Amino acid sequence: MMEAGQTRLTRTCHRLSAASLRSTLLLTVLATVFITSSSPAQPLLSFKRITVNWPTIELYFDPTCDGRSVGHELNKNHWRIFEDGVEVPDFTFWCPDPLIRCAGSFSFVMDASGSMRGVALDTAKKMLGWYIDLMDGVLDEAAIIEARKEPRVALQMTTRTPRLKENADSLTAIGASGLYDGIMLGIHELIHSGVNQCRAVLVFTDGWDNVSTATAAEIISLANRNRIRVFTIGTGLILNETPLEMIALLTGGRYYRNPRAGQMAAIYQEISTIIFQGFQECVITYQRDCADGSMRTVEMELQNLCGGKDSRSKTYRAPLDSTTFDMQYLSIGDTVIETGDSAVLTVNLDPVPHDWKLRPFELTVGCTNASLPVAGIRIPRGSALEGVPLTTRRIENGVRVRLDSEVPVSASGPILELQFAPALASDSMRYEVEAIITDGEGTCRGTVVNPGGFLVVPRLLPRIDHEDTVYLCRESTRELTANEGFISYRWSTGDTTRMLIVAQPGVYHVDVVDRYGDTLRSAETVVQYPAERKVWIEADGPLDFCLEESVVLHVAGDVEGCKIFWRQETHPHDALRAKDEGAYYAQVEDLNGCRYPTDTVYVQTWNPPFTLNVSESVITICRENSIELRVEDDFPGYEWSTGDTARSIHARAGGGDRGKYYVRVVGENGCRSAWKTVEVYAYPKRTLSILPSTSVVLCAGDSVVVHAGEIFEFYRWSTGDTTRSITVHKSGEYILTATDENGCNVSESIQVIPADSVMQPRIGTPHGTVLCADEALLLDGGDQYVAWKWSTGDSTRLISIRDTGSYFVDVTAHGGCVLRSDTLSISREEVPEPQIEASGGTLICPGDSLRLSVPQSYASYLWNTGERTSEILVHTPGTYVVTVLTQGSCENTATPVQVRLRMEVPPPIMRSGDLLSTTTKVLAHQWFLDDAEISGATGSTLQLPGTGRYAVEVIDSCGRRLRSDDLLVTTLDVPPPHAVDLKLHVYPEPVRDILYLRIDEGGEINSIEIHDLLGRLLLKRSMLHGSTHRIDVSSLPPGMYLLRLRHQNGLFSHRFTKFNTP
Question: What pTM was estimated for this model as a whole?
Answer without folding.
Answer: 0.36
